[in-house]
Amino acid sequence: MGSTAVPGLGGKGIVDVLIIAEKDNMLRIIEVLESRGFRYNPEPPERLFVSGPFYYKGRELHIHIHITYFGREEQREKLLFRDYLRRHPEEARRYYELKKLWSKEAADGSEYTELKTRYIMEVLEKARKEEGNKR
Prior knowledge:
Elements: E1 14-21, H1 26-35, E2 39-41, E3 48-56, E4 59-69, H2 73-87, H3 89-105, H4 109-134
Parallel strand pairs: 1-4
Antiparallel strand pairs: 2-3, 3-4
Helix pairs in contact: 2-3, 2-4, 3-4
């Protein structure tokens, strides 16, 4: 669902995965992932998130797994953002360049996250308008 899910969009070596599950199965999914070496991070409490290494062709990759349930707004927004960038490669290139700039200029991780979140909200607004025009 992250940068690696958008062709041509560079990432920072982390693969973001979104698991959309039945609400009753979410804690079981975390248990299974923890048994495979992933680490559950309970903060913030409304977000189910695990991370850990994954080995592919002898190479260690870092995986961030976001777990949500069907119908949750978070699920819709993450996919809407991804799909908008897929349909608009020029916006994906802009996002990539901005992320590089922010990683150099942001004072810390929280400032980087704030800049990125502000940009994502702007793109989501465009995506919602585009989606509304198709109806």
